[in-house]
Every structure is written in structure tokens, then in C-alpha cells.
Design a protein that fits this description.
Layout lengths: L8 H10 L10 H8 L3 H14 L2 E3 L5 E3 L1 H7 L6 H18 L2 E8 L2 E8 L14 E3 L4 H8 L3 H8 L14 H14 L2 E4 L6 E9 L5 E10 L5 H18 L19
Antiparallel strand pairs: 1-2, 3-4, 3-8, 4-5, 6-7, 7-8
Helix pairs in contact: 1-2, 2-3, 5-9, 6-8
Length: 264
């Protein structure tokens, strides 16, 4: 049996940054020490180094926040703000066409991460914010991304635990396999009441320069009265526009160009 290894200096430094999340955007030094699993002395030394570099900032009350320098570095991520900058005009067009919640997301492992969200005035329950994470199978953007993942990844995901959020969340591996096949066939994913009982989302994949699916775009609308056949072409048009802006040049039409949606 291999003995557990002690955290390295980079591990400890990253644990300080990982102490911050959406529920804990401001932390005292004691909070950081506790959440990072570090001694107060070690936390003090690492927080000092991160603050001097600009990764953390300290406010007048003494609490620490994620610093602007870290945001500047994150802006260089090709799947983060750089992608958002390319996609934003098409997201705005989609919002103007639908006046509904518009989202852009990428896959990180078995989760979807939202990198942009244009909020509508509708009362639909949207539990999304920039930086939020959700399991792939429970959202429209997640289904669009999962459907175009490697076959072995899809198989491993389907046979793993599938978290449930409402009675409508897909938790059966066989059903998920059929849904993903339909997403690939139609070119769009429709997620019905999977995260909240009052919401429906329509999503489409975004292709990178080499044709691989790098992101997904969606609209989230109230389930009652949702006009899926109208939403599918609008979402797919936005996804195609972003794909072309990223350098994708398809030689043949996307799957599902007949405009026939599907339900999941």
C-alpha cells in the first residue's frame, strides 16, 4: 500500500485559491486556513505571496477576495473570455430574436461550465451564473456537449451516477444513450424540466476550427407555452455563427438541417 504523499508547495498554493467559490467570495485569513486545510502560519505566508502578485486583494474590513490579476490571466483562456468575446455578438442576436435567457457553456470533465449568460425578464427559474457548474446530463448545453464527446467518455459517463434534481431529470443510462443519439441526429438538444420544474432549454453545439465541438449555446424558456420548433432554428443559427467566427468551415450541412426538433 502506497503511503500518502504530503501536499507540495503548488498544491498548497492552489488550495488557497480553491477556498474561494460563489458561496464564499470573501474570506478572512482564518477562513482560508480552515477551508484550505492549512495551518494559519502557512496560510498567512501563501496569502501574502498571492496578494503581492495580485491574485488576491484585501478590502478595508480585512477580508480577502480574488484579485484582478487573476482575472487578467483567466482572460487569456481560449475557452473562457476569449471564446466569450467571439460569441457575444451572436448571443446578443439570439437574445434579440427570443428575448429569453441565453447561455454559452463549455465542458470541463463531467461538468458543464457557464462562461456567459444574458438574462431575460421572464420568471423562469434559472439556477445559472457565469462560472456555475452542472452535470452534463441535466442541461441542454450539457447534453449537446456530451453527445459529441468521445464514445468511451460517453459510455463511462452514462454508466456512472446520474444526479437527479427533479422527477424529470434523466437518470436511466439507456434513455440517456437514446437522447444523445437524437442530439447528434438533429443537431440540437432539448432539456425539459431537468433542473427546475418550470424551465425548458434548447441547445446546439459550437464547432471549433478543426470541427470538434468546443462549446454549446442555449436558450432557457418557461416550460409552459414553450415553442420548441421556433427556438431550435434560432439556437442553431447562433451556434453556426459562432462556429464560423471561430474558423469552422463545414463542407456538408450540420446534422438535422431539416429543422426537426426532438424532446428529452
Amino acid at each position: 500500500m502506497t503511503a500518502p504523499t504530503s501536499p507540495t508547495a503548488p498544491d498548497r498554493l492552489l488550495s488557497v485559491l480553491a477556498a474561494f467559490d460563489h458561496a464564499h467570495p470573501a474570506l478572512s485569513l482564518t477562513d482560508i486556513s480552515r477551508r484550505a486545510g492549512l495551518s494559519l502560519t502557512t496560510a498567512h505566508r501563501l496569502v501574502g505571496a498571492l496578494t503581492r502578485w495580485g491574485a488576491l486583494e484585501r478590502d478595508a474590513s480585512g477580508a480577502y477576495h480574488v484579485g484582478l490579476r487573476l482575472w487578467e490571466v483567466a482572460a487569456l483562456a481560449p475557452r473562457g473570455l476569449a471564446l466569450r468575446q467571439v460569441a457575444l455578438p451572436f448571443l446578443e442576436d439570439l437574445y434579440e430574436a427570443t428575448h429569453e435567457n441565453v447561455q454559452l457553456a463549455v465542458r470541463d470533465g463531467s461538468e458543464v461550465v457557464y462562461i456567459e449568460w444574458l438574462a431575460a425578464r421572464s420568471s423562469v427559474g434559472v439556477h445559472i451564473r457565469v462560472g456555475a457548474r452542472w452535470p452534463l446530463h441535466a442541461t441542454g448545453v450539457g447534453l449537446a456537449l456530451l453527445a459529441h464527446g468521445a464514445p468511451e467518455f460517453q459510455e463511462a459517463y452514462r454508466t456512472g451516477p446520474l444526479a437527479s434534481f427533479t422527477p424529470h431529470t434523466i437518470t436511466d443510462p439507456g434513455r440517456l444513450r437514446r437522447v444523445l443519439a437524437e442530439v447528434r441526429r438533429s443537431g440540437a438538444a432539448v432539456s425539459v424540466r431537468q433542473v427546475t420544474d418550470d424551465a425548458l432549454s434548447v441547445a446546439a453545439p459550437v464547432h471549433g476550427r478543426d470541427g470538434t465541438v468546443t462549446a454549446a449555446v442555449s436558450v432557457v424558456v418557461p416550460y409552459a407555452g414553450a415553442r420548441v420548433p421556433t427556438l431550435v432554428p434560432a439556437v442553431r443559427l447562433a451556434a453556426r455563427g459562432i462556429s464560423r467566427a471561430l474558423g469552422w468551415r463545414p463542407e456538408i450541412p450540420l446534422a438535422g438541417e431539416d429543422g426537426h426538433p426532438h424532446g428529452c
